Amino acid sequence: MESLRNPFWFGGDIGAEGLVDRDTETAQVERTIRDGSKLFLIGPRRFGKSSILRAASERLAAKGAIVIRVDADPISSLNELVENIVALSASHLRGKVHQVIDDLGKFFSRLRPEAKFDINEREWNVTLGVRTDDEGARGIQNLVDALNGLEKLALAQPVSKPVGLVIDEFQRVVELGGQRAEAQLRSAIQQHSRVGYVFAGSNTRLLTAMTMNHDRPFYRLGTVMTVGAVPRQDFAAFITKSLRKSGFRVADPTVVNSLLTLAEDVPYNVQSLANSCWNELLSTRGAGQPTLTADVLQKSLIRAVMELDPIYTGTWTKLTSIQQNALRAVIREKGKGMSSAPVVRTIGAASSTVHRSLEALRNQNILRDEPADGKIQLRFDDPFFAHWIRMRAMNLKIAGSL
Ligand SMILES: Nc1ncnc2c1ncn2[C@@H]1O[C@H](COP(=O)(O)OP(=O)(O)OP(=O)(O)O)[C@@H](O)[C@H]1O
Ligand SMILES: [Mg+2]
């Protein structure tokens, strides 16, 4: 047995070496930064947006580019985001500490940054001299000043050195700054030609509206790229190869196909289920060569889903009974024709109530819309939650018949 380390990773961005497919997407991110243009990368949750950003940024950095990559999700204020951008900019400037501080002061003069280098952590910390408690307007102005500063920094680099700003979970910036932020950011960004901008996010409805509605400031500001599923063939080949490398047998390719179907091709869930299968196979070592079968797959699915039982129970018990019925109907109808009269009847409420319930489920990131064949299909954001609902219903039935 060559490798005893589980080769299936899930949770958090993965580097280029672990990425299956995504050549087009990473190339587009790289090109955007090299050309100083603008890109919106939009996709459902856990489809691998951050991994694409990471892989592209690492490749560009290896070729000498300056790429500032920030995640807006955990930030609590725009000033915090600005401080991160300036601190990361500092880490790319050459020279002794005092020189870097001088350069920062030059590029980001309007922000009056106070920078300190933490020797233990080997990172820069920045606080803004202009920081005020007035988050709204001041926060946006600081962000605009930071972007203008970054453009100055970029212009001071040789032409061969691309500079890029990548903001992941960009919708958070709009949440914090409001629509005012969009207009102000647009007027700054459209004047920049040296910095390449990549804005990514998973709140697909908000980001799509922001970039596709002609009355919104970000309309046609840049290219919009949607992140879809990883091609099945590629994922299947990766799973089969990784299992074989660990000394396991894949008797029948249809089992790998079933794995992808059960995970609804969501990369995170595919990796989680494959990880669970790997553990299951490892535990059967000793009695012949462990083989991935439909039975192993089923056990692994139950294990992967039930590990999340406390989380799913928490979510489920907070839902109204109409929302619970609506979720059951989405499973039964495979997310299609949800507003038709017969389906609404099975949910047991007036059509307007069902409509509101579905909207609430979308807003809680439990369901998402997926366009297919000119129609909108409702899907679970997390396909394992749908399995949990099915498993729970089956257990209740079994318990009830005893
Ligand atoms: N191209 C890929 N090849 C293999 N696994 C992938 C790929 N993309 C994503 N994954 C799996 O999905 C997980 C989540 O990826 P990532 O964090 O990049 O997604 P995301 O879209 O940014 O998610 P979130 O919406 O939670 O921010 C990874 O840890 C990995 O297991
Ligand atoms: Mg992400």
Summarize the entry for a quick read.
The chain has helices at 23-35, 49-62, 78-92, 97-107, 135-155, 171-189, 204-212, 232-245, 253-262, 267-283, 294-306, 309-318, 321-332, 341-347, 351-363, 383-401; strands at residues 38-42, 66-71, 113-118, 123-128, 163-168, 195-201, 223-226, 249-250, 291-292, 367-372, 375-380. The chain is α/β, with parallel strands linked by helices and 402 residues long. The two termini are 45 Å apart.
What does this structure look like?
With 402 residues, the chain is of the alpha/beta class. It folds into three domains: 22-226, Rossmann fold (3-Layer(aba) Sandwich); 232-306, Helicase, Ruva Protein, domain 3 (Orthogonal Bundle), CATH 1.10.8; 309-401, Arc Repressor Mutant, subunit A (Orthogonal Bundle). 54% of the residues lie in helices and 14% in strands. The protein contains 16 helices and eleven strands. The strands form four sheets. It has a five-stranded parallel β-sheet, sandwiched between helices. The relative contact order is 0.11. Bound molecules: adenosine-5'-triphosphate and magnesium ion. Magnesium ion (MG) is lined by residues 49-50, 168.
Regions with little confidence, pLDDT below 50 for 5+ residues: none
> Which structural class do you get from the secondary structure elements?
alpha/beta
The count of β-strands is: 11
Strand content: 5-15%
CATH topology of the largest domain: Rossmann fold
Helix residue percentage: 40-55%
What binds here, in terms of ligands, is: adenosine-5'-triphosphate, magnesium ion
Please, how many domains?
A: 3
CATH class of the largest domain: Alpha Beta
Rg over CA atoms, rounded to whole Å, is 24 Å
CATH superfamily of the largest domain: P-loop containing nucleotide triphosphate hydrolases
Do you know the CATH architecture of the largest domain? 3-Layer(aba) Sandwich
**Outline, from the CA principal axes?**
globular
Distance between the termini: 45 Å
